[in-house]
Amino acid sequence: MSGTQSIKHAGGEVHSTPPSRALKRGPKRKLDEDHWFEAALDAMAIGGVERVRIDRLAADLGVTKGSFYVLFRSREAFLDELLAHWRRISTLQVIAELSAINEPPLDRLARVFAISTSDRAKRRARIEAGFRLWAYDDLRASQTMREIDHHRLLYFQSVVAAAGIPADDARPRAFLIYSYLIGDAMLAAGQDDLREVCRAFLSTGSQRQ
């Protein structure tokens, strides 16, 4: 076999190119755990945990199932790590980001309400709905969601207390705010005036701030 490959261009000019260059393919896609987690969250948003299947995720990522087993022992082990990943990115990281901002208590409370209207809120609401449905029938998912709720409520309670809500009212007010945020993220856009009234009432007990 010849060591070069001849390529004829327009005008009859011929150049010789080494086969290694003429037949070179692009590098294989290298995936880490986060690629699989993000694909799983997309699947969770569409069809819940039943859609989080290794073959489906591999197809979505354009790789073989073998790539999955390089990183994870099994689907069950992956689901355990997915729960920890969701707790981290949906709760612990969000609380850390909010806590790092130095601002007056009422401004921080306003930032809390903005969670349900952020660009990522609608996608995350669909994902979380998948996790909560899973938690009805799975002990580990149920435990994770209880931990998530606990962390969020404690944080909201601290924000409410710092905003001047009496101690006896801080926890139930935090629960109402948390419930509002979950519901608001699931609702269609619009009715901004009504949303503003609800946020003002939950923040201060008055319909207007």
Oligomer classification: single chain
Give the total of beta strands: 2
Strand content: under 5%
Instruction: Give, in spatial order, the strands making up the sheet with the most strands.
Output: 1-2
What would CATH call the class?
A: Mainly Alpha
* Structural class by secondary-structure content: mainly alpha
Order of helices and strands: EEHHHHHHHHHH
Please state the CA-atom Rg, rounded to the nearest Å.
25 Å
Shape category:
elongated
Could you name the CATH homologous superfamily? Tetracycline Repressor, domain 2
CATH architecture: Orthogonal Bundle
How is the main sheet built?
A: 2 strands, antiparallel
Distance between the termini: 82 Å
Mean pLDDT: 84
What's this, in brief?
By secondary structure, this protein is mainly alpha-helical. It is built from 10 helices and 2 strands, in the order ββαααααααααα.
What does this structure look like?
The chain is elongated. Helix 5 (75-99) runs parallel beside helix 8 (139-162) and helix 7 crosses helix 8 (139-162). It has 209 residues and is mainly α. 67% of the residues lie in helices and 4% in strands. Residues 1-11 and 13-27 have low confidence and may be disordered. The chain has a single domain (33-204), classed as Tetracycline Repressor, domain 2 (Orthogonal Bundle), CATH 1.10.357.
What key attributes describe this structure?
single chain, 10 helices, Tetracycline Repressor, domain 2, 2 strands, mainly alpha, 209 residues, 4% strand, disordered N terminus
Give the secondary structure arrangement, pairings included.
Layout: E1 5-8, E2 14-17, H1 19-22, H2 33-47, H3 54-61, H4 65-71, H5 75-99, H6 105-113, H7 121-135, H8 139-162, H9 167-186, H10 192-204
Antiparallel strand pairs: 1-2
